[in-house]
Design goal:
By secondary structure, the chain is of the alpha/beta class. It is about 30% helix and about 30% strand. It has a single domain (about 1-190), classed as 3-Layer(aba) Sandwich (Rossmann fold), CATH 3.40.50. The chain has helices at about 10-20, 30-35, 50-55, 60-70, 80-85, 180-190, and strands at about 1-5, 25-30, 40-45, 75-80, 85-90, 100-105, 115-120, 130-135, 140-145, 150-155, 155-160, 165-170. The chain binds glutamine.
Length: about 200
């Protein structure tokens, strides 16, 4: 099983390190050819407008949406990755994959609380909370269709799943807690292989 980490911009190294720690082969992905060798993909945090443009420039946007729609290809987006997976982004027409039936709001915690940490309960992965690291984080305002909320913080949804798609506001790759990555690796291992 190989999990790709989109390596166009952002904190992809930390995701690759986390995959190594849980014994999963991780591949940095910059081209359609590299993407074709993967069984799942992590889209890291970064700047969603930049990553959206670069994905389109390299043809990765249609390669990724094609496999997601055809094969149920598993994708986990953190932060900017969440924004790119969302169908709806409040007040923005930026390029996106638009695969998840969620509405996100960028930089939802505002300038004053640029970054913060908070304990987040994620019943799907265990009884003890994860340490949520939020960096200019988006939130999920609403889930619809088959998308479901897996975790909330204050009034917002901060982790959601829709079939094989997983997306969250916070950055588990910046902590020692590998449970969200294990949860995603489990989704990938259960998905029948149909490589492009
Ligand atoms: N604020 C960034 C954006 O809107 C996301 C921040 C992050 O990925 N840490 O793209």
């Amino acid at each position: 099983m190989k999990i790709g980490v989109l390596a166009l911009q952002g904190d992809f190294r930390e995701h690759l390190e986390m995959l190594g720690r849980i014994g999963v082969e991780g591949l940095p992905i910059r081209t359609v050819e590299e993407f074709a060798r993967t069984d799942g993909l992590i889209i890291p945090g970064g700047e969603s407008t930049t990553v959206g443009k670069l994905m389109a420039r390299y043809g990765l946007d249609s390669a990724i949406t094609g496999r997601a729609l055809k094969e149920g290809f598993p994708i986990y987006g953190t932060c900017a990755g969440l924004i790119l997976l969302a169908k709806r982004i409040v007040g923005s027409d930026q390029a996106r994959l638009g695969l998840m039936d969620v509405t996100v709001e960028r930089n939802a915690y505002g300038r004053q609380v640029d970054s913060f940490e908070a304990e987040i309960n994620v019943p799907a992965i265990g009884d003890t909370p994860v340490q949520g690291v939020f960096i200019r984080a988006p939130v999920i305002r609403e889930v619809s269709g088959s998308a479901e909320a897996l975790a909330r913080f204050e009034d917002h949804i901060v982790l959601a799943r829709q079939g094989n798609l997983l997306a969250g506001s916070f950055h588990p790759e910046l902590t020692d807690d590998d449970r969200v990555h294990r949860y995603f690796a489990d989704i990938v291992s259960r998905t029948p292989k149909a490589r492009a």
